[in-house]
Amino acid sequence: MVTEAFVAIVIVVALQRLLEVRVSRRHEAELTRRGGVEHVPEQMPVMVAVHTLWLLSMLLEVWLWKRASVPWLGVSALIVFGIGQVLRLTAIHALGARWTVKVFTLPNEPRVKAGVFRYLSHPNYIGVVLEIAALPLIHGAWLTSLVFSIANGLLLAWRIPAEERALAHSNNYHVS
């Protein structure tokens, strides 16, 4: 029963990511129409690979290595995962039609300072960090959590500075 619930959560997250890609494409089209510019497109295949392999790896780790669910770890990880979801979804909501999966800027638009962005510069990435670390731990897939936390950390070490440069160039944006 626990394994089935875990698989269901992973499937829901995969479907959520696919829905987000659809929403992002709509936003990209609107931003492009308004003069928006995509930056560092070479990051997208890497990000897609990291997220896809993360979802598959945790399921394979649970099935192939018969990882047992540890109740206290599973509940703790579920709470952390939930916090990550809330951070990501509130960031998406605050950005509205300016939110995309890709790094997109809309020249001469002011920095978004609404919602969670009043307190954090990159709440969506903090949410992703929490999700990638916590979701596999719900069912004891610690190796997936470790490997993909490192992979995501490397990706974000590339992505966040690229995003900051794009925002500074297009919008005279500076983190405050």
Distance between the termini: 47 Å
User: Under the CATH scheme, which architecture would be assigned?
Assistant: Up-down Bundle
Q: How many separate helices? A: 5
Largest sheet: 2 strands, antiparallel
Number of domains: 1
> Which CATH class applies here?
Mainly Alpha
Computed over alpha carbons, the radius of gyration is 17 Å
Number of strands: 2
Q: List the strand order in the largest sheet.
A: 1-2
Structural class given helices, strands, pairing? mainly alpha
Fill in the CATH topology.
Four Helix Bundle (Hemerythrin (Met), subunit A)
Task: State mean pLDDT (0 to 100 scale).
Answer: 94
Order of helices and strands: HEHHEHH
Principal-axes geometry comes out as: elongated
Strand content: under 5%
Helix content percent band = over 70%
Task: Characterize the structure shown.
This protein starts with a helix and ends in a 5-residue tail after the last helix. The protein is elongated, with a radius of gyration of 17 Å. The chain has one domain: Four Helix Bundle (Hemerythrin (Met), subunit A) (Up-down Bundle), CATH 1.20.120.1630. Helix 1 (2-33) runs antiparallel to helix 2 (43-64). The chain has helices spanning 2-33, 43-64, 71-95, 123-137, 142-171, and strands spanning 37-39, 103-105. With 176 residues, it is mainly α. Strands 1-2 form a two-stranded antiparallel ribbon.
